[in-house]
Design a protein that fits this description.
Elements (H helix, E strand, L loop, with lengths): L1 E7 L2 E7 L10 E5 L5 H9 L2 E5 L3 H16 L9 H19 L2 E5 L14 H8 L6 E4 L2
Helix pairs in contact: 1-2
Organism: Nonomuraea muscovyensis
Protein name: Methyltransferase
Length: 141
Amino acid sequence: MSTIHWTEAHTVRSARWHSENASPPPRRITVADDRMKAYTAYRLACEGTALLWRGDFHNARQLLRAMSRRMDRKPLPSGNNAQETFRLHRRARGDRARVLGRLVVLLDDTHALGLRRAPDVRQACTEAYGPPHEPTAVSLN
């Protein structure tokens, strides 16, 4: 079981890390909320920093879409032949998934999402992840 650690309000906190694609837990985590600009979030995510979201749920979804648009601005690479173009395209899609996957939310010990205006995800998370035991960090994407 992997664990992530971060500092919030001068207190070191931790949670279990869950990743559907078995990606390792992020090494750097910063707490983010509604005040964070999309440019800053995108830059931090590209640098490898996970953003633990503490603001409004709908604003997190908007931030995710804004980060996605920034990634879409980059032209897809093309290679000298179909095989190389396919390989470059898959690499770009993997990079996109990694960057967007760095926007992280915290499920509490009942699998509830403690964000303003968040949907009730407890049943879905229990069916997907099993019975809740402890706070768990997952990618919003």
